[in-house]
Please model this.
Amino acid sequence: MDAKIKETLLNPIFKGNPITVLVLGICSSLAVTVELKGALVMSLSVIIVTGLANFILSLLRNTIPMRVRIIVQLVVVAMLVILVDEILKAFAYPVEKQLSVYIGLIITNCIVMGRIEAFALGNKPFASLLDGLANGAGYGLILVIVAFFRELLGSGTLLGARIIPESFYEAGYMNNGLVILPPMALILIGCIIWVQRSLQKDLQEK
Amino acid sequence: MNTNGNIYTVVYSTIIVVLVAAILAFASSALKPMQDANIKAETISQMLDAAGIQAKDVPTTNEQILDKYAETVEEAFVVNIEGQKVSELSIARANIELIDNLKAQNAKLKDEALLPVYKFKNGKTVVPIYGAGLWGPVWGYIAFNDDLKTIAGAYFDHASETPGLGAKIKDDPAFRALFQGKAADFTQEPAFAIVKGAAKDNEVDAITGATMTSKGLSAAIAAWLKAYAPYFINNAPKAEEPVSEPEAETTEE
Model:
């Protein structure tokens, strides 16, 4: 049992990462990774939403009428997302202003619906909660890695604090404007997938 | 129990939806006071930025922003479109009043809008503007020097303009800096404009690649300054007695 919990928790972080292996949630990972701070808040929000959505729907799983199950899932996920948005508005207003569009898009994040369909509807609430949290964390991990490079190379800062010293700029160093734009995020995610596939031989197609 | 029957499905859906609605309504009303406080502080910090008192990107708490406002504001009041003062806005620290429902005022800008005027102790007069950008509303605050003509600074914000293009009205300090030192001409219409190839004193250059946002912001500024024009014209210091013009050195004859 213990090994199973460990598997549920660790698998989505690396071996079955939702972004790099399942290739879900790509759009939002391109959009919110310009700055590390935004990526961290987005990760946290997605972890909370996937965890709670999995938990609630797993509790309800035996009562949901099959014909309307997608709608019931959407209603629950939408409720959680609106709650996250309202709470951010009350306690982290500047971050909410920056992210509001993307927070709304968590509803359409494939990871949330994907995990509900694939896991929560067939498993006990506690295991589903762990699965949701772990998948959110796997998504967040990639987001943070991408945002780290994009903020460092694109703006020369991390969490808003200057990392690359002024003397570099005086010597002719320039921030890379391309890194700020979404295409570079896709290339970075591509690189991460490349690294993961070369480490994990069983992912490679014959 | 048959969870696939029609009656079960309808009853189940109804219960879920009503339950979710109740939870959301409760959360919304419980968090409203905190959200309103955030919006108020945000509004004030935009005014302080426009008036050159405190830059918007300096991290501060809501309380500090309110303190700063109470410390630096001289008076705040509401004028109508004839330029007459209709009511005072409280500036006491415990009860700061703002007109921050700009959308509602914008809808009745031609007749009975409540137009707030915020006067700061450093001589700046700050007024809001509001209008439609490309994807959503744009708004902002423009600060005038005590001659009520020269623009001391401006701060703009938007709901959903394109990042990197239209969003520059907020993100690009260079665009906002263009407004400094320009002068609105309240006898003309528009009193101030954002155009391609700005030549006159009451024009600034538009943003490349953000034509619609620039036009929207320009229209917003024009519409609001038109509404404010009577107040500004009536209260501007007379031309014979220049207020503090460094160039006007006519002592040696």
